[in-house]
């Protein structure tokens, strides 16, 4: 069983009180006891968050055995992006740019995680605000050589999709055989945190994965800590891969080749 939490932390700034408090984010995450944590909008060396090294602080506080930070938006002294933390090691990891034209830089993190039940391919991202942009980003990732290399593994895709109309589910994900774990979307409203009306934080699965639980965390602290509520998902991996099936996932870390 893998317990995963996906969370747009809004740099640790509360959506209602506008107060910065990374400790609140940490408490929200710790309460759910996840094995894997996927965070969006994580600051590193930015004035608004006291120049904190949030990726390092979060990895330390959550006792992550493996971590991967993707700096997508660069600011004067630092920037922000995606952070992937895991209690289990990565067999491989890639950082893939999803920037299109002159729009805000976006990215995806792709990792094969060595869980006790076997390897799983995880994609973590924060997609764009425009519908055409999001569809392009999904197609780019699903057709990327780094993703196809481990396509036969059970796969979980999570993050902030910004897809409030849910058009991706019946579009590229359906064509590639993915099932939405966060459906119907009315049960997964996550934004804004203090009065959630839209479902932006989603999860899709493919392969021998059984979704044991999927829910939005509605604790009082979560409503104050960020402008999004966290998504918690538990999946059971039902497979028994042979040694030769793992030959292509030798440890390797990089940005991934551009297509």
Number of domains: 1
Number of helices: 6
Number of strands: 13
Estimate the strand proportion. 35-45%
Shape label: globular
CATH class: Alpha Beta
**Structural Rg:** 17 Å
Distance between the termini: 34 Å
By secondary-structure content and strand pairing, the structural class works out as alpha+beta
- The amount of helix comes to 10-25%
- Round the mean pLDDT to the nearest integer and report it: 92
CATH topology: Deoxyribonuclease I, Chain A
Regions with little confidence, pLDDT below 50 for 5+ residues? 241-259
Level-2 CATH architecture: 4-Layer Sandwich
Kindly describe this structure:
By secondary structure, this protein is an alpha+beta fold. The protein has one domain: Deoxyribonuclease I, Chain A (4-Layer Sandwich). It is built from six helices and 13 strands. It has helices at 22-32, 54-61, 131-142, 145-148, 169-175, 220-225; strands spanning 2-8, 36-44, 66-74, 79-86, 90-97, 107-115, 118-126, 155-160, 179-180, 201-206, 209-216, 231-237, 252-254. The protein has a seven-stranded mixed beta sheet, covered by helices on one side. Strands 3-4-2-1-12-11 form a six-stranded mixed beta sheet, covered by helices on one side. A hairpin with a 4-residue loop joins strand 3 and strand 4 (79-86). The protein is globular and about 45 Å long. Residues 241-259 have low confidence and may be disordered.
